[in-house]
Amino acid sequence: MQKNEQEKLCAPGVYIAPTRGGSVCLKKRRESASHLLKLTLSFLVQLALLLAIFIPCVQGVLALHKPLTSKPMRHISVHPYGYALRVAVPSSRTASGLSPYGPGFEQELLKEFCGVYGYNPAITSVASRDEALDLLREGKVNLVAGFGGEVPGRFEKHVVEGPAYAHFRPIMVERAGTAQDVLEKFFSVAVDLSPQILGSDSSKLLLDPAAYSLWLPLNTNMRTGSMLDRTVSYHWFWGREDLVLDADLEEFWTKEETASQLGEMTERYYGFLPSKPQPADLKALSDAMNSSLVEYRDVLQRASQETGLDPLLIAAVIFQESRFDPDAVSSTGVRGIMQLTQNTADMLKVNRLNPEECIMGGARYLHSLWKDLEGMGLEPWDRWCMALAAFNQGPGNLRRVLRHADADPPTWAELKRLYPEVSRRGLAGSSFRGREAVDFVESVRYYYYVFSALSGVVQSEGENFASLRAALTRR
């Protein structure tokens, strides 16, 4: 093609460059390259838009498998939400009913874990730790909870031992005679707070002292030996093959929230236990259950109906104050079955020397102290403990102690430390007895537990206690 003919084919003003095959219009080639670049940029923009839509969709689908947590991506469970978690626990810890402070330590801890990570617990009752670990090794359960001690060597290849969350020194208990008969009778009933058998020989049982202390008031004939020097720990155990459960449990046991909850639960379930239960007190509690609570059943029922207080909590306050003696007088001048001051009795418009009036007035007063703490965001039992402390040392002193609390909201565990400290430093007046307030609250908690346990335990005498409580709480 001649040059002048090619110029006709090209747009005006183009540069015609010679090549081996002739010449080309350079501007046309440059326009083609520009068009290709525009297509490429357009494709990339559309791809970015598609990814921006697709990635959140994928993340949303993955999130359906688990509740929203702050876990790393590697912890996202492949189990669907509500996945059945088969848990083996000691047969003596599968039921509740003795403690008024909750469903039981292990049950509450397990419920917390399953609630956070979306599991649905299915409980299997077993007689021993080795039986539970055999089920775990065979894949018949996913988790073992509520047992003390370390993993036996034959299970180490198959089982992960979780962190120790409680430590104790076991108590040796004699098996002989009446004590063994009572123990076997007790173990025939599945109750949450019975002592766990950690080891045994032909003549002795090795028991968890905390649970044993809770159980002791129900079986006062039990003979105990010395506390052992060695320490035993509680752990959860799970299979090495379940990587998802392993990741969830690893995170659960390292969370600050778990450590905080363990402290709160330990205080609530065990913080009131006396270091050395007095046999005379235990006998007096049992006698009161059989006699005094029957004698004052009607007024306890009326007080409960009017205030909403558990009648056994009212009974625990009465036992601590006067041992159900309507003529009791303290060294400080308080009198009556609920040890009211004259000023308090006048405010309540009751005769404190009349036991029925004193019980009704005392129940109203305790309820009003509890109502005064409304709106502080307190946990229920922290609030009740503070109300009991105010019942003993006055609401003004409670407010003075609360000014020194750091926790928000404050807890009874903190106030147990602050009450004696404020008293020692003279920050609440010379008449303030901080240690007495703590002793009062802890004693009432202990007596309330004993009354509740005696009314709930399923034994021949316990049936009478249970019917009594049913009568007391009937609306």
Write the topology of this structure.
Layout: H1 3-9, E1 16-19, E2 22-25, H2 26-63, E3 83-90, H3 105-117, E4 119-126, H4 129-137, E5 143-148, E6 159-161, E7 166-168, E8 171-174, H5 177-187, E9 197-200, E10 204-207, H6 209-215, E11 224-227, E12 232-239, H7 243-254, H8 256-270, H9 279-290, H10 292-295, H11 297-307, H12 311-322, H13 342-348, H14 355-372, H15 380-393, H16 395-402, H17 412-424, H18 434-456, H19 460-473
Parallel strand pairs: 3-4, 3-5
Antiparallel strand pairs: 1-2, 5-12, 6-12, 7-12, 8-10, 8-11, 9-10
Helix pairs in contact: 11-12, 11-14, 11-19, 12-18, 14-15, 15-16, 15-18, 16-17, 17-18, 18-19
How would you describe this structure in keywords?
single chain; 475 residues; alpha+beta; six-stranded mixed sheet; globular
Structure report:
This protein has about 475 residues and is α+β, with helices and mostly antiparallel strands. It has 19 helices and 12 strands. The protein has helices spanning about 5-10, 25-65, 105-115, 130-135, 175-185, 210-215, 245-255, 255-270, 280-290, 290-295, 295-305, 310-320, 340-350, 355-370, 380-395, 395-400, 410-425, 435-455, 460-475; strands spanning about 15-20, 20-25, 85-90, 120-125, 145-150, 160, 165-170, 170-175, 195-200, 205, 225, 230-240. Strands 3, 4, 5, 6, 7 and 12 form a 6-stranded mixed beta sheet that branches. Helix 11 crosses helix 19, helix 14 crosses helix 15 (about 380-395) and helix 16 crosses helix 17.
